[in-house]
Amino acid sequence: MRKGIILAGGTGSRLFPMTQVVSKQLLPVYDKPMIYYPISTLMQAGIRDILLICRPADLPLFRALLQDGTQWGISLQYAEQAQPNGLAEALIIAEDFLDGGPSALILGDNLFHGDSLTPLLAQTCAIEPGAALSGATVFAYHVSNPQDYGVISFDKSGRALSIEEKPVKPQSKYAMPGLYFFDNRASDFAKQITPSGRGELEIVDLVNMYLSSNALNVNILGRGTAWLDTGTPDALAEATQFISAIEKRQGLKINCPEEVAYRLGLIDDAQLRELAKPLLNSGYGEYLLGLLQISH
């Protein structure tokens, strides 16, 4: 089974002073903590074992909020990243947790939403019994400011040619979002990476190792999928406004782990009812109880 990794480390310096004493992944995005969103994304992909990597000072807060995951029918474990040494370091920290198996790495400040996203993630994540797993899968998303991200360029046939980290002159407008699927070689590959000029193990270097060995698959996310990066005050505000607008319009919550767990059959009616009780004053609990009425 593929296991999940959420990297919720870093100093969040672009959000200072909001994040001077608390992890940005514990900040709210409209009606729920930011960390709920990547957890829900991994759950929808079919992942049940997740390792959350964070700063040592933040670990007790994450553990108090998320516990061991059993309330949502999953298993949550924790590990520390003492210094922000780069995204690829997450695969090294998670080596024992992965135990030689494949992984899905998602950044704790990346939000995904879209009707076609769940089946795409489930298909990408799935491992057929007895089948050999080789390679990595990343995604490409059209953005107006590609110079701020890792940029994927393609040839005329749509085959990925290169991936550059924050290029001055981007070769395309397709950014690589913070969600990556790797085979069982990722931890070993990460150990081979040389720190970049900013002293970090870059995820682009890890992905390029798969690209150079013709073992990289790139899926383009269409217009019906939203990818939100919440690393700056403006981006955080925009994400909150987006989630608020959609939820109010549809009357459905986005990336609500309790609902995801219930709809996937990971928890039953009684468990959902217990999760709703302490949340009734905020309206969040009423929404969860409403799911019981809809299902019956």
UniProtKB/TrEMBL annotation:
Pathway: Bacterial outer membrane biogenesis; LPS O-antigen biosynthesis; Carbohydrate biosynthesis; dTDP-L-rhamnose biosynthesis
GO MF: glucose-1-phosphate thymidylyltransferase activity
Cofactor or coenzyme needed: Mg(2+)
Catalytic activity: dTTP + alpha-D-glucose 1-phosphate + H(+) = dTDP-alpha-D-glucose + diphosphate
EC number: 2.7.7.24
Role of this protein: Catalyzes the formation of dTDP-glucose, from dTTP and glucose 1-phosphate, as well as its pyrophosphorolysis.
Name of this protein: Glucose-1-phosphate thymidylyltransferase
Gene that this sequence comes from: rfbA
